[in-house]
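quick one: guanosine-5'-monophosphate bound model?
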Amino acid sequence: MDNRKAILFSAPSGSGKTTIIREILKRFDIFEFSISATSRAPREGEQDGVDYYFLSPETFAQRVENQEFLEWEEVYAGVRYGTLKSEITRIWDNGHVIIFDVDVNGGMNIKKYFGVNALALFVMPPSVEVLEQRLRNRGTESEEAITKRLARSAAELGMADQFDVTIINDDLEHAVDETQRIITNYLCN
Ligand code: ADP
Ligand code: 5GP
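yep, here:
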């Protein structure tokens, strides 16, 4: 199998991408997570160089200027997220398949860049109400940040049909099994 491939997960915030990705990473050692850079502050428990590369807004801007990003987006006003080109070589040099967790615009850009070498998955919450509930229950965001995330979600949900596959994340176990089946099928063909 050619490992120079990528699986990308996009969805509105709170849909469960991170949770599904963590489960997939536990089940297989062939995958490696592409650590994005962000200008937002770490949440409790998040580690620099594990969950994200946490950069100051100034350092982020400098690295944009240096053309170090494959793609980047200002996902929320004043908060930037981006995929460093160095992540792709790092992970492929390790012989691993890349897993991306990016917003829907980033997902579309990465899919265009990788073409058939990437599988684009959209993680769909069972409903907008459940999405909001999950975001609140996660307890990591301020009310302002929750409002910003929900405000984007309708437009993001409308982009699901541009992805290769949609995974409905209702029952977690079922969603992870389905993701595993789809990824395995993609990598074996
Ligand atoms: P995202 O990475 O898409 O922003 P998370 O993976 O952080 O979303 O999930 C948001 C919250 O919803 C977390 O608290 C997570 O534990 C919870 N969650 C994820 N999937 C499910 C599910 N299938 N059923 C119930 N809760 C879920
Ligand atoms: P969070 O702040 O919840 O970790 O992430 C917020 C949003 O930013 C999520 O939709 C996540 O997928 C997206 N994101 C994370 N890293 C990147 C990236 O490198 N590029 C883009 N375009 N979006 C990203």
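The chain has a mean pLDDT of 96.
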